[in-house]
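ARCHIVE CARD
Drawer: 12
Card no.: 0347
Subject: one protein chain, sequence and derived structure
Cross-reference: see card 0346
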Amino acid sequence: MDIRYLKKLIKVVEDSQISELEIEEQGSGRVKIVKNLLSGAQPVVHLPVAPQTATQPAPAAGEKADSNLFEITSPMVGTFYRAPSPGAASFVEVGDRVKPGQTLCILEAMKLMNELECEVAGVVSEICVENAEPVEFGTRLFLIEPEG
């Protein structure tokens, strides 16, 4: 979806009495904008991310290569945040069980807070980025060990 279109949608939510707006366009994807009514903060945009098979670097001595992990990468350039606000608990920790639709982190881009949602059920094997670290499109964020 076009960023100008997203900004217009966010403005509609901010200026209205509605607290949530979800739009799905065939071929363009899905966007869900949720107004945070308690803090007056900007709306949050939910971005579903499909898991990708991880490409692992060569294992170091004594390490085992694990090719069954799913790699979750950044869908945009922005700043990676592990928690919804400073001082709050992280969305996920290594070892946590996750499910589709669960928020993994927030990516801030152009003053918009974008929640990154998991699309696979499993266990968080690794968090690859430090909190408040800038990320590029395609940066590896999480490795998930799928259930089953």
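Annotation on reverse: Residues 3-15 form the longest helix (13 residues). The chain has two domains: 1-40, 49-146.
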